[in-house]
């Protein structure tokens, strides 16, 4: 997902080694065996043993499937919900039934519910290369890290407890970690890199869902997918793969989306057009507009119209834009995004994200966050070109990682010698294959456009509903880019009516804002009710 996940992977690897080495060192001989020699052979044997034992702890998941169940209850809206939490693994096999991967999940199922009527939702984060620790510990589970957005979470002790906005009142939930993250690992001689690609990853997740559904007898349940960030790319691809394998979904929920990598690459004009409304929302939040509108949403409607109209037309002219046209566009941009017209002109009307993050609050010696532009950071060099770090990235990591490692052992009773990998970044051979074969296409796309997959799933399943959730202050996956991607799915009116959009005063991880999380619960509750009801016979 970011620099955060790369650094966390490396730090957790260092932690695993630091925990393992002192224990093993207790058995290390103090001198040469037998009192003679130079000790080199003993050192070599010791180092070999250390390497093997650390490697075994790092990469040896169970081949046999596990499911550790614990009983709990939570009070939601005046109701006491009794539920079971499940922490376990699904074993994936190839065509010859050879085990190829062990996939870790945590699931929450309501006691006493009728499985055939009870929805089940499969959740995952993105990256690509992130575990699902963020959704698992911060969004809709029965327990969550308590956040006060947009503030950096203080060090331990952390506020972790019952989640009044859990979706357990509407759906069972299954949180799945990508292979090579969390406790999910390849098996035997299979390498994790065999799963690190758009199509390979989607196939693994589809197979995990099929196996979990079979194992727990949930084929008759209404089924939903919930993806965040690159997880929306995965959700779109998986929706078609499941549909193609006989599993019809009720709904796909996309939080902070990226569906088409082809038109959102840095340096292409569409990228600058996509970011402009998010820049404007950020400038509005930080009071950088000379005539700040009272309401954000109507203001952003104006910015959308400008971005998709005069601004897009101006960029299309390239160097043929006249000085008068350049001045007019720069002045209007300045009024919308809070950066001087002179700076905008020097950037050729194309202010990339890093520059905007650094420039907007430069006069205050502050930067704004990428994942959530409400957060501000302080760089060592206030005159620099780009931020040193993402303040919205570093604000939550310690609390989420610490609480998960405590929660999984002490409350879910799941014990393993493997460390939990927050991300695949930093692991040997990690290099994501972005090539994708979309439905109906002979060749493979070099930059995936999985909006094609989602559209195909919606055409073949007229009851498939899609809900797009967007944060105004998300500059990792800007909402205007999502609107563009979905508008180009080329759906017929019958399918288009199954699309919905919602917007929140938050960033990429919308649920970090407690007020936004509460509204999310309200909106999702309505979505589940309407979507499940629409699939009933006679409706």
What does this structure look like?
This protein has about 550 residues and is of the alpha/beta class. It is about 40% helix and about 15% strand. Helix 1 (about 5-25) packs across helix 2, helix 4 crosses helix 5 and helix 6 runs antiparallel to helix 7 (about 295-315). Helix 5 links the parallel strand 9 (about 225-230) and strand 10.
Q: Write the H/E string, N to C.
A: HHEEEEHEEEEHEHEHHHHHEEHHHEHHEH
How many domains, in number, for the residues?
A: 3
Mean pLDDT: 88
E-strand count: 14
Under CATH at level 1, the class of the largest domain stands as Alpha Beta
Q: Compute the CA-based radius of gyration.
A: 25 Å
Q: N-to-C terminal Cα separation, in Å?
A: 41 Å
Helix content: 25-40%
CATH homology-level superfamily of the largest domain: Alpha/Beta hydrolase fold, catalytic domain
Q: Find the CATH topology of the largest domain.
A: Rossmann fold
Q: Main sheet?
A: 10 strands, mixed
Number of helices: 16
Gross morphology is globular
Helical/strand content category? alpha/beta
- Ranges where pLDDT stays below 50 over 5 or more residues in a row are 1-40
CATH architecture classification of the largest domain = 3-Layer(aba) Sandwich
């Amino acid at each position: 997902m970011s620099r955060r996940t790369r650094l966390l992977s490396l730090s957790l690897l260092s932690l695993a080694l630091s925990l393992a080495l002192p224990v093993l060192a207790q058995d290390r001989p103090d001198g040469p065996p037998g009192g003679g020699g130079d000790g080199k052979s003993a050192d070599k044997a010791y180092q070999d043993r250390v390497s093997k034992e650390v490697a075994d702890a790092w990469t040896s998941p169970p081949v046999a499937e596990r499911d550790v169940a614990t009983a709990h209850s939570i009070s939601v809206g005046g109701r006491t919900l009794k539920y079971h939490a499940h922490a376990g693994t699904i074993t994936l096999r190839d065509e010859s039934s050879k085990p190829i991967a062990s996939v870790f999940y945590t699931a929450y199922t309501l006691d006493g519910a009728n499985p055939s009527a009870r929805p089940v939702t499969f959740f995952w984060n993105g990256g690509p290369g992130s575990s699902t620790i963020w959704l698992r510990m911060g969004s809709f589970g029965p327990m969550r890290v308590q956040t006060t957005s947009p503030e950096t979470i203080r060090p331990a002790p952390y506020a972790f407890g019952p989640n009044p906005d859990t979706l357990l009142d509407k759906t069972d939930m299954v949180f799945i970690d990508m292979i090579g993250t969390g406790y999910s690992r390849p098996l035997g001689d299979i390498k994790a890199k065999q799963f690190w690609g758009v199509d390979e990853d989607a196939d693994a997740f589809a197979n995990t869902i099929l196996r979990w559904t079979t194992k727990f007898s949930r084929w008759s349940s209404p089924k939903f997918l919930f993806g965040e960030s690159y997880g929306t790319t995965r959700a779109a691809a998986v929706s078609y793969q499941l549909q193609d394998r006989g599993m019809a979904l009720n709904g796909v929920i996309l939080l902070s989306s990226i569906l088409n990598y082809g038109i959102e690459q840095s340096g292409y004009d569409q990228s600058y057009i996509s970011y402009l409304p998010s820049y404007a929302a950020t400038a509005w939040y930080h009071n950088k507009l000379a005539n700040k509108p009272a309401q954000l949403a109507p203001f952003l409607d104006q910015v959308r119209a400008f971005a998709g109209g005069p601004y897009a037309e101006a960029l299309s002219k390239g160097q043929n834009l006249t000085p008068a046209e350049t001045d007019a566009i720069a002045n209007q941009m300045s009024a919308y995004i809070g950066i001087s017209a002179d700076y905008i002109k020097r950037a050729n009307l194309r202010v990339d994200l890093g520059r905007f993050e650094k420039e907007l609050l430069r006069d205050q010696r502050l930067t704004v966050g990428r994942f959530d532009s409400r957060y501000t950071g302080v760089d060592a060099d206030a005159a620099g070109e780009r931020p040193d770090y993402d303040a919205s990235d570093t604000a939550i990591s310690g609390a989420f990682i610490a609480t998960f490692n405590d929660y999984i052992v002490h409350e879910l009773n799941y014990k393993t010698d493997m460390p939990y990998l927050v991300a695949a970044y930093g692991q040997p051979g990690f290099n994501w294959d972005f090539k994708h074969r979309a439905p109906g296409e002979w060749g493979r796309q070099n930059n995936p456009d999985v909006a094609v997959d989602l559209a195909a799933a919606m055409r073949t399943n007229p009851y498939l509903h899609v809900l797009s959730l967007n944060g105004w202050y998300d500059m990792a996956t800007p909402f205007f880019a999502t609107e563009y991607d979905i508008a180009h799915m080329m759906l017929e009116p019958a399918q288009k009516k199954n699309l919905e959009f919602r917007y929140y005063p938050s960033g990429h991880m919308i649920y970090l804002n407690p007020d936004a999380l509460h509204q999310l619960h309200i909106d999702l509750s309505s979505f589940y009710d309407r979507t499940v009801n629409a699939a009933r016979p006679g409706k």
